[in-house]
């Protein structure tokens, strides 16, 4: 996943879980979609994603002058 933190044994990124929680889904909704996850894992992932924000690549063209 290009260095993005994932839940161990899955390809679910911590930021995907945070996005669902920020989008209005609850922990119960995530657990319904991924029954192999424990509630503690989802809550821990949400805490990790809040304390370690996604940085990513800078946007735009650095060489273009702002007008």
Describe, in short, the structure shown.
This protein has 67 residues and is mainly alpha-helical.
Account of the 3D structure:
- The chain has three helices and no strands.
- With 67 residues, the chain is an all-alpha fold.
- The protein has a domain at 14-51.
- Helix 1 crosses helix 3.
- The longest helix is centred in the C-terminal third of the chain and has 13 residues, at 39-51.
- The model has no long low-confidence stretch (mean pLDDT 86).
- Categorize the overall geometry: elongated
What structural class do the secondary elements suggest? mainly alpha
Count of β-strands: 0
**Count of DSSP helices?**
3
Strand content: under 5%
| Mean residue pLDDT | 86
Low-confidence stretches: none
Largest sheet: none
Distance between the termini: 36 Å
Helix content: 40-55%
